[in-house]
Amino acid sequence: MAARAARELSPGSVVNLGIGIPTLIPNYLPPDSGILLHSENGLLGMGPFPYDDEVDAQVINAGKQTVTIVPGGSTFDSALSFAMIRGGHVDVAVLGAMQVAENGDLANWMVPGQKVAGIGGAMDLATGARKVIAVMTHTDRDGGAKLVRRCTLPLTAMRCVDLVITDLGVIAVEDGGFRLVERAPGVTVEAIVAATAAPLLVDEAGRASA
To answer: How many C-beta neighbours within 10 Å does residue 78 have?
Structure first.
């Protein structure tokens, strides 16, 4: 999923990576990609995870994992970082998700009854980034659909998701709802439709695998 999400990122873009699967994306970007990775705790120019001899405990991503900084990268305080997000200077936000609704609503920060640290920067990113990509498994641990007609979990932001990448395929969020863009290798259209709790448009493009 991280490798597939990396293919959606364009040279010259500023991209924020959320906690979870999105943090793996730097490992699939070539050194000359021209993509600047942003972390809301105050880092622009984030590189892949460090080798043991490269670890600097002060260089971390939003998930408190140690990362590297590419040549030309910079660090700054969180106030400036969020000003970048709210000012529309982040081109793409790649976020994890618990649910995505057919109208683009996103729920990715809280499960009722479970202890959580807070919404963090997810709300700002979901509304401030020019494009939002949700990366998640297609179903939850109990087999329940995460692509739904309406979110039942607390919302992070409304009508913000543009694209969803799951372990089963790539789904666009359009005015008419979900459209299957691409199947994962070995996955059938029927399996994706069965795992989706909302109407799913399948055209000829959606019948092709990656």
So the answer is: 13
What letter would DSSP give residue 27? G
Type and span of the H or E element at 86: helix 78-86
DSSP 45-57: EE-SPPPGGG--T
Number of domains in the chain: 1
Is this prediction's pTM over 0.90? Answer: yes
Per-residue model confidence as pLDDT tens digits over 172-209: 999 989 999 999 999 999 999 999 999 999 988 777 77
What are the b/e assignments for 43-67, b being 16+ CB within 10 Å?
A: bbbbbbeeeeeeeeeebbbbeeeeb
Return the half-sphere exposure (C-beta side, CA atoms, 13 A cut-off) of residue 171. 35
Measure the CA–CA gap between 38 and 94, rounded to whole angstroms: 11
Q: Is 40 a catalytic residue?
A: yes
Helix (H, G, I), strand (E, B) or coil at 175: coil
Domain span at 72: 2-207
CATH number for the domain that contains residue 35: 3.40.1080.10
Of the residues 40, 54, 102, 204, only one is catalytic, namely: 40
